[in-house]
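Quick check before the chapter quiz. The format below is the same one you will see on the exam, so make sure you can read both the input and the output lines.
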Amino acid sequence: MTKKAVLLLSGGLDSATTFALAKEQEFDVYALSFRYGQRHAVELNAAKKVAEMLGAKEHKIADIDLRLFGGSALTADIDVPKSRSDDEISHGIPITYVPARNTIFLSFALAWAEVLDAYDIFIGVNALDYSGYPDCRPEFIEAFEKMANLATAYGVAKNQRIRIHTPIINMTKAQIIGEGLKRNLHYSVTISCYDPSSEGKPCGQCDSCILRAKGFAEHGIVEDV
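Here is the expected output.
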């Protein structure tokens, strides 16, 4: 019987690696991306390329506008922090955190999974490099998974558990990249930048760009930004 999974696909290297790992487990992957008013909407172009490259069974882009609430440098007129040190990046909740974003995204994924009769959801959260994001922690994922099994008709009616998969949650950025390189993943189609230029060129100075560059550097790779 075919295994179906809904996967949250941002267009960055974390979700692309997660996609590759899901495919290796022989899931038919249904990719879900969001146009949520983010300043780095260029990531959706990358998501489309990743979905095509890795063979998504279907790729949907959901439109929701989190600019309605703001509260983040990604959805409001707030400067994206630049050139921060490793110590600054690893402490506190950064202004690039989007309130309740992963809760919202996972809820959409759960709704689609129920329609597909899929019992597996993949999300590329990482608790090491983004320790300040509360919705990237194992405790959050465990709580959401418990809720998912209580909140859906198919979770209640059928004797099969809904699972939220987080295969890279305890990996460093270098380890994540290493997993992708082992599987010949072409990271050139991905983008991680929070504040790209109008042409889609990475800024090279935001937290995400810094962590990405550091991860590749540990493999002796320097990307052209």
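If your answer matched, good. The longest strand covers residues 27-35.
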